[in-house]
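Suppose a colleague, Dr. K., hands you the sequence of a protein chain of 281 amino acids and asks what its three-dimensional shape might be. Before reaching for any lab equipment, you can write down a predicted structure in token form. Begin with the sequence itself:
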Amino acid sequence: MTQDPHGYALLDSGGGAKLERFGAVTLARPCAQAVWQPQRPTLWKQADATFDREGGNRWHGRARLPQEWVIAVDGTRFRLSGTDFGHLGIFPEQRAQWAWIRERVAAARRPLRVLNLFAYSGGSTLAAARAGAEVCHLDASKGMVQWARANASLNGLDAHPIRWIVDDAHTFLGREIRRGRRYDGIILDPPTYGRGAKGETYKIERDLTETLRLCRALLSDTPAFMLLSAHTPGHTPVVLGNVLTQALRGLGGTIASGEMLLTGAEEAFPLPSGAYARWQA
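The predicted structure, expressed as tokens, is then:
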């Protein structure tokens, strides 16, 4: 497995694509938001591989990529691998949210129990655990939960109290409510469309308000934070802020929302990549 400490950087974007560096590997992948022209067109020739969705998902130059490699982002290590869908096992636009999670856990000055839903490869789980929280990590994909566990091992968190759950989100939330289990912090990044562990379907426009209702019922008597993010077109910062405000009405605290951005090289335009809304006590 190739290891590189140099982390992540957005190098350029434009023409419906983004050029990114992940450690020693440079990749070009589609990005519908990048409607401008590239700032540094000659730089794109340095891409080790490209991915496109013309006529189906396709890598070009995939043989030049390591089968797996490791990068460090803000002190957290991630195992990466080029998947058939063009994903790598990390969403670096979440970097600011991971920092915020660490800040919220540290600021509580007490042990926190945190739930991470739709948790993918575990970036938010690692952020909360590194700051000292007990974490429950849930994803409907067994493979992604295994990937997240490998990331936890990379960061020396094998012995840390992390529950690894493969389940449908609503099924699990209902069961936790009936058990009387409560959480001081909840993180969720629901998909536009997804399938549960037993074939259940999830559609964000249909199911998000119910997800948030269940999450509200799972908050402890002294909750610290909730973080909602999404990559669904139309689910803007205002939309996410509104649904979170409605779901948490009566709790007090403050809610902030904004765009998640890919950033890196000084010459590269910040690239919007989803939205977030977050509540803190």
